[in-house]
Amino acid sequence: MALGKTFRNPILPGFYPDPSICRVGGDYYLVTSTFEYFPGLPIFHSRDLVHWHQIGHVLDRPSQLPLDGINFSRGLYAPTIRYSNGTFYVINTLVDGKTKSGNFIVTATDPAGPWSEPYWLESAPGIDPSLFFDDNGRAWYTGNRIPDQPQYESHREIWLQELDLRSMRLVGDVHVLWDGALKGAIHAEASHLYKVNGRYYLMIAEGGTAHHHAVTIARSDSITGPYESNPCNPILTHRHLGLDYPIVGTGHADLVETQNGEWWMVLLAMRPYGGYFYNLGRETFLTPVRWEDGWPIVSPGSGRVEFSYPVPNLLETTWPEVPARDDFDAPALALHWNFLRTPRDEFYSLSERPGHLRLRLRPQRLSEPTNPSFVGRRQQHIYFKTECVVEFTPQNENECAGLTLIQNNDFYFLFAITKSTKPVLRLIKRAYGKEEILSEEPVNAGKLYLKVEGHEQAYSFYFADQPNDEWKTVAKNVDGRILSTPVAGGFVGACIAMYASSNGQSSMNNADFDWFEYISLDQ
Length: 523
Fold this sequence. Notes:
CATH class of the largest domain: Mainly Beta
CATH superfamily of the largest domain: Glycosyl hydrolase domain, family 43
CATH topology of the largest domain: Tachylectin-2, Chain A
Helix content: under 10%
Number of domains: 2
Strand content: over 45%
Radius of gyration: 23 Å
Number of helices: 1
Oligomer: single chain
Largest sheet: 8 strands, antiparallel
C-alpha cells in the first residue's frame, strides 16, 4: 500500500448491481446481477480490491440461461459467489423464466470458466439466495421468502436450510432466522452469513432497493438462531441524507476479510445527476469496515459511503485497460459486450467480413421482449462520447441499422439509418411505449459515421459522411432522463448498442460496423 494513496468510488461504474465477493488466498472475485442481458453474471478478478478486470461470465451458454421472452428487469437477480475446497459456487435466481424459474447453483474449478450447467433447487422459494460453508464442513442455504402469515405488504423473512453438496439438494429442517431490524421493514433480502470469532452474523438488505435501501445485521451463537439485532442498526443507509445527496440507495452488501486482516464491504448505490435521475443504474462501491464490541462499523468516522478512501493494505495490481475503440479484429467479442436475452440463432459475425461486426437484419424489434440483433455495452460515465462507423443500405422502410441508447423496451433512443423515399438518418425517442420522431436527415447510402455525446442529462446526436468531415448535428441537448430508472422503472442501467432490424419482415440484408468507440468525458 502506497502511503497516502486513495481510490475513487464506484469501483465498477455503470450497471453493475448486487455485488457479491469472495477471496481465495490473495485473489478476489466479484459477480453482479444482469437481469435480461446475456451472457449472464460478469465475473471480475482483483488483487487489491480497487482495480478489477473482467475474466468471463458465469452463464455464457444458452443451455445455462433461458432468458427467452423475459420482460425487462426480470431474469437474473442477485448472485452470491463463494469458494470451498477447490470449487467455486455461484448461486442465483432466475425470475419469470418461460421454461424454468427459481434458484440454482453452478460450479467451477476455474472462476474464468467453464461453469457447470445449473443445479436447480427444489422447494427453494424467494430470491437472493446465498451459501455459507461452515468450518465443520457443512454447507447452508439462506434466502428470503414470503412468511406463512405476512403482517404487511412486502413483508419478507430470511430462512435457512442445509445443502447436501453431493446431491445439490436442500435437506433437513427449515429455520426462519429474521425478518429485518426495522419494525415493518419491507423486502428483507440479500442475506449473507459469516462466522467471526466463533459467532454467526447474518447481514441483509431491507427497505427496498431504491432510496430507502439499508444494510442491517444480527448475530447468534448458533447458525439456526435465535439472532439478536445489532442495536446500532442500520449499519449503513443514506435514506436520511436527502434526495440531493450525491450517493443514494446504499445497500445489498457483502463482506470480505483480506489476507492482512482488514475488512471491506462491497455494495450497490446510485449517483443521481440532473435531478434525482440515475441513468447509470446501480453501481458497485467499496467501503472499509472495522469491528467494535462484536459488531461491524461501516465507513468508520462518517458512517456514509464516500467517493474516496485510503486504499486497502494490499499490493496494488493494475490490469490493462479495456481499449476505448473496438476494431472487431479479434475472433470473439470482448467481454464487455452484451445481448438482450438468450441468442437462439447467429445474428452477428466477426468472420464474414474480417475487421467488421456484421449484424443480420431480423424481424425482432427493440420494443419487444425478444432477442434482437443487438450488441451493446453499459453507459458507465455521466459525461461520455461514443462513435462508430456503419455501412448499410436499407432496401425498404422496414429496415434500419445504427445505434440505440436503451433503458428497456419501452424507453430508448434509436439513432438509425432507414429509408423513406430515400435513405435517411432518423432519431426516434420511445417513452412509455410510444414512439416519436425527433429528427430526420437525408443521408447517402453506404458508409456513415455516427456520434452520440452525453453531458449529464443532455444527449446530442451527430453524423458525418467522411472520417475527417465536420460533424453535422441531428439533435442537440435532448433530454435523457427517459434512460433513468426513476422514469423507466426496473432495476437496470442504460446501455449503448449497435442494432439492426427488419421490423417484423424477413430480410437478407446486413449492417457492417467497422469500429465502435466509447470514451469517458468525466473529469
